[in-house]
Amino acid sequence: MTDRPKLTKLSVFNTTWGPREGEEEQKIVYFWPPETEINDQIKSVGLIEAVVRFGQTFSQNPTHSLHTQKTRTVWRQVEGEFFLTLSVCVPHVKKLAKEGGGEVVEYRPDDVSDKVLLGILERAHDMFSLFCGGLKYVLEKNNDNRHVLRERVNHFYTRYLATLKLCESSVLDMWGGLQYLPLEAEPFLRVQSLVNTAAQQFPELESCLVLQQGQLVWSEIEPGVTRLLVHYIITTLLPSLPSLPPDATSSSHQGRFLVGGGEADLLPQVHLGGHQPRHLVVFHAINSTLCLLLPDQPQADFFPKYSAYMGPLLSDLSADLTHLWVSNTSATGSVTGSDNVRFVYYNAANFAVKSSMEPGSEALLSLAAELSSDLPESGGEVTGKLSSDKWMVVRVAGLRTVIIILSLKNLNLLEVSEEVAKLDKSSFAKICLL
To answer: How far apart (Å, rounded) are the C-alpha atoms in residues 421 and 142?
Structure first.
């Protein structure tokens, strides 16, 4: 039994490379799993090229997916003639046949959303562009050396796929939003004061973002780059914390470097659009994380000085913010106050996302993703009853989207409207959702 989609293939290829018969292998920049026979890689890439050309004869809108009974494949033309593709197996269950005994396999294609898979695909390329500059950038910087490009792509995606939890993907991955931590004025001003003080003490710092419990508190970085950096921190750096050895250099406080810190460390670079690459440093204490961008590689004494100065300050601030977090969570309980009413809220203007959904709701959210994408840009609302007797309400208002799941039994449409109105009053009173 497979109840969630599972990654089966991921590839990067260029349609203009290897144009003649017998040279098709040259098109492939990267293919996962790497042990796949080269003929199978060529067939996989050739099929997508054929579907793309076939679709062009019928529509000016490019094709983006291929559905079969057992698999779902999506792709994007990410840069020029470069394509990025992803394939998953369709969830299925085995059931006893009604007649003649034996088992039959029942596939569930509705549990796989093209929109969600495309969101995952696009973020993967955005992350590659952030840390490597993009496919064309790598070629330009290395005199069109395709071997270097293949090595760089292989290095990135081999590590990126290790952090990709496709079985837990949902509409949140389609949006790639940020969870903001709401703070009262006094603790927020303490965060801002800490950032400003560090900027004065260390003029080599250009910009900074602050996370608490993995949620965004403050950022001086462009929103699109901020959400990619936050995604990198919460999926790659923070999960590795328990396995890291203790940092002996910070015995007087709990601060430590997650990226950088060593005198000989060559810092990774991030690429911010058309600007020059910036050097990345990540500093962490208790539950707070600082992501720092520097225009130049810092002097070797920067790391011990920064740790000695910022470690105690961030440790004290993080302890206080953690106490506030625990107190607020205990006081408010669940976000909605009811286990029978769950919601997801997204604002595309600042990528803010807020969710009270429980783990295991991925299939419901995949359905909601399809419904929300079908609504016009001007906005609208869809209300429907599911086979599980739950009700789903999907509302789009400008750049804001709200998905509501009602688990109350025996509701009629009027009662659904009343429950949604209660939620609007308790959670969205200050947000325009007309």
So the answer is: 58
What whole-number distance in Å separates Cα of residue 173 and Cα of residue 169? 6
3-class secondary structure, 288? strand
Rounded-to-integer distance, Cα 256 and Cα 325, Å? 22
State yes or no: pLDDT of 1 exceeds 90. no
List the one residue out of 90, 123, 124 whose CA is nearest residue 6: 90
The maximal CA–CA distance of the chain, rounded, in angstroms, is 79
pLDDT surpassing 50 at residue 419? yes
* Lowest mean per-residue pLDDT among 28-42, 93-107, 218-232, 374-388: 93-107
State how far the Cα of 351 lies from the Cα of 224, in Å rounded to an integer: 8
The DSSP-derived string for 300-359 is TTHHHHHHHHHHHHHHHHHHHHHHHHHHHHHHH-SSSS-TTEEEEEEETTTTEEEE-PPT
d(CA 29, CA 150): 5
pLDDT single digits (tens) 106-133 = 888 888 889 889 999 999 999 999 999 9
- Across all residues in the chain, what is the average pLDDT? 88
Instruction: Return the SS3 of 85.
Output: strand
Q: 153 near 135, Cβ under 8 Å? A: yes
Q: Which two tokens stand for residue 354?
A: 């807020």
Give the span between the Cα atoms of 126 and 132, in whole angstroms. 10
Distances (CA, A) of 279 to 35, 72, 160, 298, 299: 35, 38, 20, 9, 12
The answer to whether 345 and 402 are in contact (CB under 8 A) is yes
Question: What's the mean pLDDT in 350-377?
Answer: 82
Nearest residue to 293 (alpha-carbon basis) of 193, 219, 197, 215: 219
pTM over 0.70: yes
Sorting pLDDT into bands at 50, 70 and 90, what band is 433? Answer: low
Q: List C-alpha distances in Å: 246 to 72, 241, 256, 290.
A: 44, 10, 9, 19
Output the pLDDT for position 335.
45
d(Cα 354, Cα 12) in Å, to the nearest integer? Answer: 33
Task: Give ∠ CA 69-73-77 in degrees, rounded to 5.
Answer: 155
Domains of the chain with bracketed CATH: 6-166 (3.30.450.70), 185-332 (3.30.450.30), 341-427 (3.30.450)
Query: How many other β-carbons are positioned within 10 Å of the β-carbon of residue 25?
Result: 13
Element at 175 (helix H, strand E): helix 171-175
